Write a sequence for this structure.
């Protein structure tokens, strides 16, 4: 593995009495697409701004490419930022915007011209250089902001919720374009987002943040399959929670009695935070199966009553109240050929497996 | 129903009714006097009798006599200096209030800036006489500190005094439009400039100043137009060499009994001010492009 491009160690950030970041430690690898994901107010933007140099850290250190960033102002850091509002200079044309940083570096005019044209081409805006920046649409302004940052060939590109202002279709298009662009230029991207789907589809690794702390830092698959606690599990995708009582915890496994499902023996790696009285069982909707056919069988079975049916065409989502549980669980089923869709009030047999149950604190 | 009764209920009629007080006011107090001055400028006066035959004599005199040329040029020059000084004084204050004063204290600061208006204009001019006079505050302090041996005489009763007094009077008017323009600047633009490699000074020159220009131009127009026509300040602190065109206009209307020449001078001054203002308006349009 290559050396980390960014090393964050022990970062605290205070605004007066309010603490926005608590002892944040992370290493971001060279060339990866990294996301900071979390609900609004979790400190993800603050963390990005401390990397960019817009915020001083109250304690701890930011290191970029092996260099300490203590006392290095934003204009001398090897990072560039795409702002949430894009921050396109209204009094300049598209080309002047893109050339802004090169002029600050006093690059000769001819070279600037060539570099600007290349950058605009890269983001799909070839020939737009002479346009007034205020005449550009939201998506185009975003591309200008990208070109303006990328033309400087930063070591790290910081993106502060760049897609949140776009409509759904445009956003999906930009997601794939950003991913392609990142692979093409090979620059480390750090994306701040509150949209878990966006983070999962785009990133190599994700740091999930809650209230100024990193809850978990892992690959999208690992975050989804092996969330370390209840908070992360709830934030990424849908997770059903059921009460559980652990009867025996010896020899690397836990013997459990899960409300509504039944008895199971869970290996210790499915209990990342250990086990105590506060632990609950978590199961993803796609890990439960509705056994709608007389002949279909599962290793383990439970039963309940269908409370609600949400039909999406390719998928059906059921809210099923398991016997002995007072809240329904969500179960998703793919509507493959011949599979019956149950209706409200139907009795359902629910298949499950011990390998898909997590014990979370 | 008659046509008039119908019209009276129309939207057009209620529109006219709503603007009528203002309309009557501006016709009586603005349009009518202006029309009179225009008419007057083409007539001649012999002591108290007006000769109403059309003549361009007054304009020819206003534009060819050296004394009027001098006064007109001096008025333009003093106004230009006052405007420049006002903007230079106002910009840092507006910048400070916009960028460094916490959001919730800004209204208080703006309120404090208007305090000079609580004193009458005349009173403020007299105060400047006290400050700048031969035995005034400035000379007294400098003498007391031993910086000078004789009181300075170049600070009162000349053009410098007019510039200083007028600039002080107009600074608040200049602060407000500049403050508004600075407030409108999206702060992320400044961060973007810094992110792209600019230090504080270059960022100011390349982003802050161009985006504040609409406010600066507005302040320039607001200060320049009225100061060129000011006659109280030059009269009280200007001395013989600090008199401006408006003092001459007053003289023509009153002591010289030559209202037509006064009218021609007034309209000539108005023409010059209009030309200068149009230049500024044109500049402003250039800067306003792209902002909202």
């Amino acid at each position: 593995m290559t050396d980390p491009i960014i090393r964050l160690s022990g970062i605290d950030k205070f605004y007066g009495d309010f603490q926005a970041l608590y002892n944040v430690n992370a290493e971001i690898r060279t060339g990866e697409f990294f996301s900071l994901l979390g609900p609004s107010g979790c400190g993800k933007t603050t963390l990005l701004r401390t990397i960019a140099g817009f915020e001083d850290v109250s304690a701890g250190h930011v290191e970029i490419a092996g260099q300490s960033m203590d006392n290095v102002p934003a204009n001398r850091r090897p990072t560039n930022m795409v702002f949430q509002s894009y921050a396109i200079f209204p009094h300049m044309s598209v080309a002047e915007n893109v050339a802004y940083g090169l002029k600050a570096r006093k690059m000769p005019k001819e070279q600037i011209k060539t570099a600007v044209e290349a950058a605009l081409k890269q983001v799909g805006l070839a020939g737009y250089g002479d346009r007034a920046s205020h005449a550009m649409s939201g998506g185009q302004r975003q591309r200008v902001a990208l070109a303006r940052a990328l033309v400087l060939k930063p070591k790290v590109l910081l993106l502060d919720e760049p897609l949140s202002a776009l409509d759904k279709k445009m956003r999906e298009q930009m997601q794939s374009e950003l991913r392609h662009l990142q692979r093409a230029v090979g620059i480390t991207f750090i994306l701040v987002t509150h949209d878990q789907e966006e983070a999962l589809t785009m990133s190599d690794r994700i740091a999930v943040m809650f209230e100024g702390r990193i809850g978990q830092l892992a690959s999208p698959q690992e975050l989804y399959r092996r969330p370390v606690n209840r908070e992360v599990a709830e934030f990424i995708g849908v997770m059903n929670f059921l009460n559980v009582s652990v009867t025996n915890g010896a020899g690397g496994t836990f013997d459990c009695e899960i409300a509504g499902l039944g008895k199971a023996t869970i290996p210790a790696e499915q209990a990342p935070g250990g086990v105590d009285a506060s632990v609950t069982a978590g199961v993803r909707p796609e890990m439960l199966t509705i056994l709608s056919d007389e002949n279909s069988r599962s290793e383990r079975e439970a039963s309940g009553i269908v409370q609600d049916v949400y039909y999406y065409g390719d998928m059906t989502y059921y809210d099923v109240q398991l016997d002995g549980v007072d809240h329904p669980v969500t179960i998703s089923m793919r509507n493959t050929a011949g599979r019956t869709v149950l209706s409200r009030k139907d009795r359902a047999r629910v298949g499950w497996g011990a390998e898909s149950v997590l014990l979370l604190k | 129903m008659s046509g008039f009764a119908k019209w009276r209920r129309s939207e057009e009629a209620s529109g006219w009714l709503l603007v009528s007080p203002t309309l009557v006011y501006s016709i009586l107090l603005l349009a009518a006097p202006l029309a009179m001055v225009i008419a007057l400028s083409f007539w001649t006066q012999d002591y108290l009798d007006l000769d109403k035959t059309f003549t361009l004599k007054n304009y020819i005199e206003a534009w060819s006599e050296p004394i009027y040329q001098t006064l007109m040029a001096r008025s333009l020059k003093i106004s230009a200096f006052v405007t420049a000084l006002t903007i230079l004084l106002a910009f840092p204050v507006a910048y400070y209030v916009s960028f460094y004063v916490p959001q919730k204290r800004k209204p208080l600061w703006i309120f404090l800036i208007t305090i000079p208006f609580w004193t009458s204009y005349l009173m403020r001019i007299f105060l400047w006489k006290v400050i700048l006079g031969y035995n005034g505050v400035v000379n007294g302090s400098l003498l007391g500190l031993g910086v000078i041996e004789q009181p300075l005489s170049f600070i009162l009763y000349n053009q410098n005094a007019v510039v200083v007094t007028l600039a002080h009077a107009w600074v608040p008017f200049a602060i407000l439009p500049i403050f508004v323009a600075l407030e409108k600047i999206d702060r992320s633009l400044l961060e973007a400039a810094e992110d792209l490699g600019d230090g504080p000074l270059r960022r100011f020159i390349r982003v802050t100043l161009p985006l504040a220009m609409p406010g600066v131009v507005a302040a320039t127009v607001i200060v320049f137009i009225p100061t060129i026509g000011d006659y109280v300040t030059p009269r009280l602190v200007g001395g013989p060499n600090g008199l401006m065109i408006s003092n001459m206009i007053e003289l023509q209307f009153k002591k010289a009994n030559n209202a037509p020449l006064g009218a021609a001078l007034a309209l000539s001054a108005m023409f010059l001010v209009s030309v200068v203002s149009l230049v500024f308006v044109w500049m402003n349009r250039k800067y306003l492009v792209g902002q909202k």
Q: What stands out?
A: Chain B has one domain: 60-288. Chain B touches chain A at residues 186, 188-189, 191-199, 202, 206-207, 210-211, 287, 289-291 (CB under 8 Å).
